[in-house]
């Protein structure tokens, strides 16, 4: 099931995505009663997707991101495979949605894309045992851990490098019925492929990460875990269109603009 969050005439709601671009009339949204973090019903009221604005599929309290989780990416960055997961935070204010502009930060001259599988937490959880991990996951979406690489190199903490406004595009929706163990992850810039990997290449799996993170902190419904990026990261420039496509989910597209 694909669950999207959208706005229409100033009203925000969730809906189940039905159909796709090949469907006659295009995809539609069946508005749901309530929200996806509890039992809900479909209202039967359907809206054409092209009549609404898609929003970030969730508004996370926190984004827990994982660095250096693909061996080839670790190698290209000149680092060693870490003994334990490298965990950092992106603030909620870094989140933006499909087709939202990404403002190029004024304090950087080297901004990179990082295509990532994003895990969306579905229920409050802590100290999750491996056999219960699937029970606490609502689903998966596409993420882009946009990074001011020059700032990341210059500052020992990554808060500014990875936490600036609109540095965490998410979307286009949450796919709830998906085996995330071996999915293709691709990034294109202006239609040109830049990254191509598979989640089976992750050093630590989704299960490993959920167990590790919840040993330390409580995750809330709607929180997001970014699982790391494959090799092939590189620069973005003002005017570029960057797209993250994950097998079984869809494509998240954003344009880089001059920051006001």
TrEMBL record:
Broad class of enzyme this protein falls into: hydrolase
EC number: 3.7.-.-
Assigned keywords, A-Z: Hydrolase, Metal-binding
Keyword Metal-binding: yes
Domain of life: Bacteria
InterPro entries reported for this sequence: Fumarylacetoacetase-like_C (IPR011234), Fumarylacetoacetase_C_sf (IPR036663), Rv2993c-like_N (IPR018833)
One Pfam family in the UniProt entry: Rv2993c-like_N
Keyword match Oxidoreductase: no
Positions of the Fumarylacetoacetase-like C-terminal domain: 62-257
GO MF, any single term: hydrolase activity
Domain Rv2993c-like N-terminal: 1-57
Protein name: Fumarylacetoacetate hydrolase family protein
Native species: Streptomyces ovatisporus
